[in-house]
C-alpha cells in the first residue's frame, strides 16, 4: 500500500544515496553478529528529546485576514478571488462583519485583485438610500390574499366571506381565527388592487434591508394581534377585512429598521427620528379614507414598530445570506393562514 507524506515532513535518505557513500553504507549495513537484547533494560526516550523533536518540525503558518465587511461586499470580493483562482475561506466574527482569510504567500496577490476591483467599483456609503427596483420577492407574500380573494369572488366557495370576515363580537366569543382569515379577504377589486400595490412597494423596500422570510411570519402574527385588539377596543358588531393591516405593519417595521441604521454622527435629534416621522405621516395619509379601518391601520402600524426590533442590528448592517432555515419561515407563513381557514370551516 503506498504511503503519502506531506512535503513539510523531512524525508529520510534514499537507499541509492546511501550506496554512493561508503561510510553511510557501513553504518546502515546489517551486522553479521546477532546479539541478545534485553528489552526490559532498553532506555526510554526522554520527554525533553520528544519536545525537541516536535520543535524541530516546521509549523504551518496561519491564514491571513485580508478583508472585512458586510455580506454583499465579502461576497463580491470572494467572487473576484475565485475568478483569479485564489483559494480562500470566509468566516464571520462575533461582532458581525464577514472576513476573508488566505494563505500568507497569496496575501499580496489577493489584496492586489481586491484593490483593482474596488478601484473600478467604488464602495457605497454606510447607510445608502433604499433603491426602488423591481423585484419578484414580494409575490410569494401577496399570493395568499390574491388566491383567497379570487376564490371569494368566484362561485366556488359561497360561505368563504361570512366564515372569514373579522367580526368583533364573534372574535371575542372565541373565534380567534377570524383575525387571520380576514387579512386574506377584500370587499371588491379596487380594495384588493390598492392593498396589492402598496404592499408590493413596502415589501420591496423591506427586502433590500433583510430577506423577507426572516420577518414576514412575524408581521403576519402582528397583524392578527392588531385585529384582535381592534375587536377588544370596539366590542360591538364591528366587521372588517383586508390586507391593509399587514401593509401598515410593514411600513412601521421598515421605519424602525431605518431608525436603527441611522448613523450616530447624524447632526440633530430630529434628523435621527426622520424615518419614524416620515412613516407616521405616510400611515396617516394612507390610513384615512372612506370606510377605512382606522383602528386596524393604527394597531397594525404599532405592531410593525415592535417587529422592527426583532432582527439584530449587525444583521441589518452587515447583511445576512439566505439559509435553509428561511424555507421553514416561509412554510410557517403559509401554515398560519392554512390553519386559520381550516378552523373557519
Overview of the structural elements:
A hairpin with a 5-residue loop joins strand 2 (89-92) and strand 3 (98-102). A three-stranded antiparallel β-sheet has the order 1-3-2, with helices on one face. A two-stranded antiparallel ribbon has the order 4-5. By secondary structure, the chain is mainly alpha-helical. The chain has helices at residues 15-20, 22-28, 47-56, 71-83, 107-120, 139-153, 160-164, 168-172, 178-181, 189-207, 216-234, 244-261, 269-272, 274-287, 294-307, 313-318, 325-344, and strands at 64-69, 89-92, 98-102, 166-167, 239-240. The protein is built from 17 helices and five strands. Helix 11 crosses helix 15. The protein folds into two domains: 64-120, 2-Layer Sandwich (Alpha-Beta Plaits), CATH 3.30.70; 139-344, Rhomboid-like (Rhomboid-like fold, Up-down Bundle).
Amino acid at each position: 500500500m503506498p504511503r503519502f507524506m506531506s512535503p513539510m515532513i523531512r524525508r529520510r535518505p534514499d537507499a541509492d544515496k546511501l550506496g554512493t557513500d561508503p561510510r553511510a553504507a557501513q553504518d546502515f549495513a546489517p551486522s553479521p553478529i546477532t546479539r541478545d537484547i534485553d528489552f526490559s533494560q532498553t532506555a526510554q526516550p526522554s520527554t525533553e528529546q520528544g519536545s525537541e523533536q516536535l520543535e524541530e518540525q516546521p509549523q504551518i503558518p496561519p491564514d491571513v485576514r485580508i478583508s472585512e465587511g458586510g455580506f454583499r461586499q465579502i461576497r463580491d470580493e470572494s467572487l473576484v478571488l475565485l475568478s483569479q483562482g485564489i483559494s480562500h475561506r470566509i468566516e464571520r466574527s462575533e461582532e458581525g462583519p464577514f472576513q476573508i482569510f488566505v494563505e500568507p504567500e497569496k496575501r499580496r496577490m489577493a489584496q492586489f485583485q481586491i484593490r483593482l476591483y474596488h478601484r473600478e467599483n467604488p464602495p457605497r456609503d454606510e447607510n445608502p438610500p433604499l433603491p426602488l427596483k423591481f423585484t419578484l420577492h414580494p409575490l410569494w407574500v401577496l399570493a395568499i390574499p390574491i388566491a383567497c380573494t379570487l376564490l371569494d369572488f368566484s362561485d366556488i366557495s359561497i360561505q368563504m366571506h361570512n366564515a372569514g370576515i373579522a367580526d368583533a363580537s364573534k372574535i371575542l366569543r372565541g373565534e380567534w381565527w377570524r383575525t387571520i382569515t380576514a387579512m386574506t379577504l377584500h370587499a371588491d377589486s379596487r380594495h384588493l388592487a390598492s392593498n396589492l400595490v402598496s404592499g408590493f412597494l413596502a415589501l420591496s423596500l423591506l427586502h433590500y434591508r433583510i430577506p423577507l422570510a426572516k420577518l414576514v411570519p412575524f408581521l403576519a402574527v402582528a397583524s392578527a394581534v392588531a385585529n384582535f385588539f381592534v375587536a377588544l377596543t370596539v366590542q360591538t358588531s364591528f366587521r372588517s377585512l383586508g390586507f391593509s393591516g399587514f401593509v401598515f405593519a410593514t411600513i412601521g417595521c421598515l421605519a424602525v429598521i431605518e431608525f436603527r441604521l441611522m448613523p450616530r454622527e447624524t447632526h440633530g435629534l430630529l434628523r435621527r427620528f426622520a424615518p419614524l416621522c416620515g412613516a407616521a405621516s405616510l400611515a396617516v395619509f394612507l390610513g384615512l379614507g372612506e370606510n377605512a379601518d382606522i383602528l386596524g391601520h393604527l394597531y397594525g402600524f404599532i405592531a410593525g414598530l415592535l417587529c422592527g426590533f426583532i432582527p439584530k442590528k449587525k444583521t441589518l448592517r452587515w447583511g445576512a445570506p439566505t439559509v435553509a432555515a428561511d424555507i421553514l419561515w416561509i412554510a410557517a407563513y403559509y401554515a398560519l393562514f392554512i390553519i386559520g381557514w381550516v378552523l373557519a370551516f
